[in-house]
Design brief:
The complex is a heterodimer of chains A (150) and B (291). Chain A has eight helices and no strands. With 150 residues, chain A is an all-alpha fold. Chain A has one domain: Globins (Globin-like). The two termini of chain A are 19 Å apart. Chain B is mainly beta and 291 residues long. Chain B is built from three helices and 14 strands. In chain B, strands 3-4-5-6-7-8-9-10-11-12-13-14 form a twelve-stranded antiparallel β-barrel. Chain B has one domain: Beta Barrel (Porin). Chain B has helices at residues 2-10, 102-110, 153-157, and strands spanning 33-34, 40-41, 59-70, 73-84, 88-98, 116-129, 139-149, 164-176, 184-194, 213-225, 228-235, 249-259, 262-274, 277-290. Classes of the chains: A mainly alpha (150), B mainly beta (291). Chains A and B meet through α3, α4, α6 and α7 of A and α1 of B. Bound molecules: protoporphyrin IX containing FE (HEM). Chain A: One of its GO terms (molecular function) is metal ion binding. Chain A: Residues 1-23 form the signal peptide. Chain A: It holds the Pfam family Bac_globin. Chain A: Heme binds at residues 78, 102.
Chain lengths: 150, 291
């Protein structure tokens, strides 16, 4: 999940897609896809969740200051890709590493909890079943030390 | 939509929402409920969780009222707690044990007129490290419960040595996400050093054993969703008095947390033999408010 856009990979995917070899581009995680990515509503469902999450963030005095002035389009795209990839979908997160992105923000537990809460509320709003919510949270929990820069 | 969002995020000032009235930022149900000794946990066993919902930049607390009605006794507990920065928990609990049928045993056998036993418990719990949700090794806390028995005549008569005592415990709790049926599983273990007889209601130390002993306590619960937790607890107990055998405790519980502000817990508790009256089982109910 680290690092840069890899144009070669993208180009390769495009070619493979056109030749009907799409599976070749998917991350190993997608092979064990047993409905969890689908239950999130695939990439478009995840995009809706992230949009609702952004609205909740804007309204949340615990964290909205940190987000002042971020590039919303890019944020939306990157976070959607990240959650899509983590849930075993055919996406690739191309943004910067979690630690690099969040290191300077000195994010507190209060803020981390606030974001987690808003994500759960956004998933609930999009009728994501509890089991699928938990599966996604399970994938996000390992990011905690990077995001809090511990 | 995204355009509107961009505009909102460009707004210079925050929209100061009425967050001050919220009990805190920790995720729903991670405050546990209030034990009969006032510390956060389940019903009978303290967990590594600190009370209420305060996170690292917040403070909060709880008020609770609990009652256990077993065959020959009823126990009422009023408790309050404060949580500072999810680091330190302070608690007080007042327990009142109605002796119901033991009143006659005491009167006929010992000539004692006593219909209740009261005890105060002052608790301090410190989160040492970790977070119950976010860190691989879970959350670890150490605690102290200073207990003061307020009606010592009965415990004194049946062989207890002291009317006050201090329990020390170490507790670890962790939530495993998406475990059984993709539900989150809470597991908690506690080791307690204690001399308390029946938690202290029958005094501390005794004619059979008077020293500190280590007791193991455990709990496990499944979060059906973020409002319902069902599980079980087990609490090993010392056996210090020749007068009557003391047994381990266990319970099966359901906790409903409709909101951070409120929790309601119901449990089936089995307290074993208590002061010669055997196999004490019954219903436990606890109502807790968080602020
Ligand atoms: C599970 C928790 C989190 C995840 C998965 C996550 C994920 C991400 C991702 C993927 C990005 C990149 C978006 C982009 O490229 O524009 C990002 C950026 C950002 N995150 Fe987080 N984040 C988390 C927690 C937090 C918290 C708790 C805060 C602060 C309160 C926060 C504040 C930000 C900000 C302000 C940016 C924009 C940084 C920039 O544009 O330089 N994040 N996050």
């Amino acid at each position: 999940m680290t690092g840069m856009i890899r144009p070669n990979t993208l180009a390769l995917c495009l070619i493979l897609f056109m030749t009907g070899w799409m599976t070749g581009c998917q991350t190993p995680a997608s092979h064990q896809n047993d409905g969890f990515y689908d239950q999130l509503g695939q990439r478009s469902g995840i995009a809706d969740i992230v949009e609702d999450l952004l609205f909740l963030i804007v309204d949340d005095a615990r964290i909205n200051q940190s987000f002042k002035g971020v590039d919303v389009q890019q944020f939306h795209r990157h976070l959607t890709d990240q959650l899509c990839e983590l849930s075993g979908g055919p996406c690739e997160y191309t943004g910067r590493s979690m630690r690099e992105l969040h290191a300077d923000m000195a994010i507190t537990d209060t803020q981390f909890n606030a974001l987690t809460e808003n994500l759960i509320l956004a998933m609930e709003k999009n009728k994501v079943p509890v089991g699928a919510q938990n599966r996604l949270l399970e994938k996000l929990v390992p990011l905690y030390p990077d995001i809090r820069n511990l | 939509m995204i355009r509107i969002l961009t505009f909102m995020l460009l707004l210079p000032a925050t929209l100061p929402h009425a967050q001050a009235s919220d009990p805190g930022s920790r995720i729903w149900a991670t405050g546990g409920v209030t034990t009969i000794e006032g510390s956060a946990g389940g019903g009978l066993v303290p967990w590594a969780l600190l009370s209420g919902y305060a996170s690292d930049e917040e403070w909060g607390g709880t008020l609770s009222l609990s009652q256990a009605k077993v065959d020959d006794y009823s126990l009422t507990v009023q408790a309050a707690s404060l949580n500072w920065n999810n680091r330190v928990e302070l608690s007080v609990a007042r327990q009142t044990l109605d002796l119901d049928s033991l009143v006659f045993v005491l009167k006929d056998g010992f000539g004692i007129e006593q219909d209740e036993l009261r005890q105060d418990v002052f608790g301090l719990k410190v989160r040492l490290f970790g977070d119950v949700l976010y860190t691989p090794w879970g959350q670890w806390s150490a605690g102290v419960q200073y207990k003061r028995q307020r009606d010592f005549t009965v415990p004194d008569t049946i062989g207890a040595r002291d009317d006050s005592g201090t329990d020390l415990y170490l507790s670890g709790s962790k939530v495993f996400f998406a475990s059984l049926f993709d539900r989150n599983l809470l597991v908690s273990g506690t080791v307690r050093a204690t001399r308390a007889n029946q938690g202290g209601l029958l005094g501390f130390g005794g004619d059979k054993n008077n020293g500190y002993e280590f007791m193991a306590e455990a709990a496990a619960g499944i979060l059906l969703n973020r409002q319902w937790l069902v599980g079980a607890e087990y609490r090993q107990k010392p056996d210090n008095l020749n007068f009557a055998e003391e047994n381990d405790w266990w319970d099966l519980f359901v906790a409903w947390v409709p909101d951070r502000r409120l929790s309601l817990t119901a449990a089936w508790v089995n307290l074993g033999d208590i002061a010669t009256l055997t196999d004490q089982q019954g219903l436990y109910l606890s109502l807790e408010g968080s602020f």
